[in-house]
Inverse folding.
């Protein structure tokens, strides 16, 4: 009886710490020449606990619903409490009726500087700036949640995009790169500004139709799923004609190019010529993959 009690207690404890994410956090300090310093190991441990144990939403996630993601922080330089580097954030979500996970978010954030004192408390406040370390992580967590939400329901990521924008707004007051218009076309500011702009509304439409009406259908009707994916990609044509080779299109195809190549090189036949024409227009940088699509 006592053993059963302890098992139940353990299960409850695990469930209580399961929030929204199953995130693998890596701190890579090889470029500093001091990658074995305990501060980097402790930073990695603290950030892993912070990202996975913080309650980011008001929703209750079952263990099987946790969003798989990763954050690879590359430290290029440090001095005392000041750190400089980059962070690569990726996420995926399962495809209905399969064992396959599809990539959703892939962002290489090159302007990542922060201050960190070993063992300092990491506390997220959704309405005010705590530190650039917390703001950058919280921004990307909300983008992961938002894009995952959009892939399951139309405009399902609204609340998380708004929170990401809130983080941008209050972080602009601090002297860190990536939060302002003048920080370039591939910054955090540019990402959320583009996603929420009517100019790029097709991006969120595609996130839903590609995943929910395309990939999720393929286990039951592969041809219909492929046709829907082809149709969803064509929605990018008008957007691309207004803003050729836009940042959002590049982030989408950096995640999806290999997957799209595989989808249209296998399974039931669809109009490959039309698909390839669309892909060459909207994502010419991946033309080598589009040339491999033959059926």
């Amino acid at each position: 009886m006592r053993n059963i009690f302890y098992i139940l207690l353990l299960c409850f404890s695990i469930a209580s710490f399961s929030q929204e994410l199953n995130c693998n956090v890596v701190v890579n300090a090889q470029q500093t020449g001091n990658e074995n310093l305990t501060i980097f190991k402790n930073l990695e441990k603290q950030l892993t606990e912070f990202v996975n144990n913080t309650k980011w939403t008001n929703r209750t996630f079952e263990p099987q619903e946790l969003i798989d993601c990763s954050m690879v922080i590359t430290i290029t330089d440090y001095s005392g409490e000041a750190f400089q580097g980059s962070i690569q954030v990726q996420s995926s979500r399962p495809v209905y009726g399969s064992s396959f996970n599809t990539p959703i978010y892939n962002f290489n954030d090159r302007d990542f500087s922060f201050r960190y004192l070993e063992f300092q408390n990491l506390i997220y406040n959704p309405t005010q700036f705590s530190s650039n370390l917390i703001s950058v992580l919280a921004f990307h967590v909300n983008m992961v949640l938002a894009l995952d939400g959009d892939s399951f329901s139309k405009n399902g990521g609204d609340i998380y995009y708004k929170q990401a924008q809130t983080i941008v707004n209050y972080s602009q007051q601090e002297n860190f790169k990536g939060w302002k218009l003048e920080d370039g076309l591939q910054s955090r500011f540019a990402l959320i500004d583009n996603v929420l702009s009517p100019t790029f509304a097709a991006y969120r439409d595609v996130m839903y139709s590609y995943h929910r009406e395309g990939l999720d259908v393929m286990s039951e009707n592969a041809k219909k799923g492929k046709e829907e994916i082809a149709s969803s990609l064509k929605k990018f044509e008008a957007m691309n004609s207004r803003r050729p080779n836009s940042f959002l299109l590049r982030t989408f195809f950096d995640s999806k190019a290999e997957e799209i190549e595989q989808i249209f090189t296998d399974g039931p036949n669809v109009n490959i010529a039309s698909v390839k024409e669309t892909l060459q227009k909207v994502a010419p940088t991946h033309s080598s993959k589009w040339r491999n699509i033959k059926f």
Notes: The radius of gyration is 21 Å. Strands lie at 21-28, 67-79, 82-94, 101-115. The chain has a mean pLDDT of 91.
